TrEMBL record:
SUPFAM superfamilies the UniProt entry points to: Homeodomain-like (SSF46689), Regulatory protein AraC (SSF51215)
Keyword Coiled coil appears in the UniProt entry: no
Family annotation (Pfam families): AraC_binding (PF02311), HTH_18 (PF12833)
Record domain HTH araC/xylS-type: where: 197-296
Region (Disordered): 1-24
Record has Protein transport as a keyword: no
Keywords: DNA-binding, Transcription, Transcription regulation
Endpoints of the signal sequence: none
Alphabetical list of PROSITE patterns matching this protein: HTH_ARAC_FAMILY_1, HTH_ARAC_FAMILY_2
Species, as recorded: Paenibacillus glycinis
PANTHER family: ARAC-FAMILY TRANSCRIPTIONAL REGULATOR, MMSAB OPERON REGULATORY PROTEIN
Protein name as it appears in the record: Helix-turn-helix domain-containing protein
Biased composition (Polar residues): 1-13
Length: 300
């Protein structure tokens, strides 16, 4: 769809649509995910777009009627409840049914995380369709995106809010696409492996906090000895060895960075209230003290 000027609602003047509304984001962020525009339209019979390419992602959800979407050399009949996704630089086309033209809503977005995010939800040019029955959660989110962008006096705040609604929309589409979720493989792992992966994430994120493997074991429902044994079997190291590695690598990043943190501050930032103990662990791991490492990094 073609965007309209920011904050301007267009209705019923598009010759290809009996109903047409689109709202632009006047200040999309140059970040990981940002809405460009969103709209709603009921097309006339046989109305089509393409073959063409876009340089952004464009998601359509069909509210009623029928049509056909084509991408990556494959053609997909779509009707009420179906969502189809256009990917950047992929040749696509879509056309409304002659007898029952579709009524759909759409949102366009971009961002450096968009491709990876869609792939993690199981979507790609080879898998661009998801089928759903209950439309209200989706149409409500599309409506919120458009409402957020409409004649806002604070476009930067509108961009943030619209991006939040977009993330929830993609989450809902991911739930509909659960059979193809890239991370769904986690759900079919044996329980202990799934728990170990969660433990790995937890240690990777919470390394700066006081961490007790005993407490971690209890929270996951396993005895410490059993968890440690399985953790090492799956990762190759014990939980404490893994935590030490995470902390030391983060310490190296801080010592390498263009900051003025003291050794005490670096130690505290990676979970060591005792700077002397931190320095001993650092020397044992890398063969030099934190101060020596910083000096070598800055002079090298």
């Amino acid at each position: 769809m073609s965007p309209s000027p920011a904050g301007v609602r267009s209705n019923s003047r598009n010759p290809d649509h009996s109903k047409f509304t689109v709202m632009n984001n006047s200040q999309p962020a140059q970040g990981e995910l940002s809405v460009m525009f969103s709209g709603e339209g009921k097309t006339v019979s046989g109305h089509g777009i393409g073959p063409a390419v876009h340089n952004y992602y464009l998601v359509h959800t069909v509210i009623s009627g029928r049509g056909t979407f084509e991408i990556d050399g494959h053609r997909y009949p779509c009707s009420r409840g179906d969502t189809f996704i256009i990917f950047p630089d992929e040749l696509f086309s879509y056309v409304a049914d002659d007898d029952d033209p579709w009524h759909y809503v759409w949102v366009a977005f971009k961002g450096h995380a968009a491709g990876h995010l869609l792939l993690s939800l199981g979507f790609s040019a080879a898998n661009p369709i998801v089928h759903g029955r209950e439309l209200r959660p989706l149409t409500s989110l599309y409506r919120k995106i458009r409402g957020t962008l409409e004649q806002t006096p604070f476009p930067e705040l509108a961009d943030l809010e619209a991006g939040g609604h977009l993330r929830v929309l993609l989450k809902e589409l991911g739930l509909l696409n659960e059979g193809k979720l890239a991370f769904n493989s986690l759900a079919i792992l044996p329980d202990i492996e799934r728990q170990i992966k969660r433990a790995v994430r937890w240690l990777s994120y919470q390394y700066a906090q006081p961490i007790s493997i005993e407490k971690l074991s209890r929270s996951l429902g396993y005895h410490r000895t059993h968890l440690s044994k399985m953790f090492k079997q799956i990762t190759g190291v014990s939980p404490m060895q893994f935590l030490l590695k995470v902390r030391m690598e983060r310490a190296k990043e801080l010592l390498n960075g263009q900051n003025h943190l003291s050794i005490d501050q670096v130690a505290s930032s990676v979970g060591y209230p005792d700077a002397l103990y931190f320095s001993k662990q650092f020397r044992k791991t890398f063969g030099c003290s934190p101060s020596e490492y910083r000096s070598q990094a800055r002079n090298g």
